[in-house]
# Entry
Amino acid sequence: MDAFKQSNRASWDERADIHAQDRTGFYAIDRFLAGEDVLYPIEATEIGDVAGLKLAHFQCHIGIDTLCLARRGAHATGLDFSPHAIAKARELSARSGVAAQFVEGEVYDAPELLGTDFDIVFTSWGTITWLDDIRAWAKAIAGALKPGGRLYFADSSPAIMTHEEIDGTIRPHYDWRSAREKPQRFDAATTYTGDETPLVTNFTYEWMRGTSDVIDALLRAGMQLDFLREHELLPFKLFPMMVDAGSRMFRLPAGMPRMPLAMSLGATKR
Ligand SMILES: C[S@@+](CC[C@H](N)C(=O)[O-])C[C@H]1O[C@@H](n2cnc3c(N)ncnc32)[C@H](O)[C@@H]1O
# Structure
């Protein structure tokens, strides 16, 4: 594992420990433990029926979404490269009594680590910017799926990720593509949930890319696009000016031009 990934993994280990305490309620762990389905509304309405399906959740973090999908009847396996995240996911499975498998490892190694006969791969919110090779990501998805199996993906719109809020306006600020060996560095003293615990690894490395790079990678890997949608909502405040939109989602304030903040897509392995 290269230095960028090692550093990112250290950051995710720290964040997993903070997120599992859920002091701000961002991850709705209490509600999940009380029996609620806490998937965000976009994927909750778009994912379709997963009952009885063999499901792989890439970048599962502390496993809340994996366990919600298991509650919906999926035979779910979560994969994440952070050992702390995997440990917390297993704890949440035990505490909730919802069965799921959790495997520590890199997304790119999913077919070797998890198998090649999944009905569905699910991955959402805070995923591909952590990956330095989008074609290897798409290959891992296609490799883990059986023929006819499908991908469900929802995340920030790649174009909006190149922007920053500066002096009350949203401006283009980063190049739209990062070279593998030159990721964008972001400094953050605390994590995105609002918890004020100071981070020791208080910076991350992320990779920018275009929507066309994502679609092209999936098509090259043998996937067929079923739908592509854009949304004016995100489950976190990408920009400080964003306001509560209900259902744990955020939107731009009134008066700002409406623009796509998120994308979701479905694809099927040919
Ligand atoms: C923001 S979380 C995304 C999951 C989910 N939306 C959530 O918030 O719980 C990002 C996750 O990606 C994982 N991750 C980053 N790079 C990875 C890689 N190369 N292989 C596997 N997991 C990775 C991190 O450990 C982290 O748990």
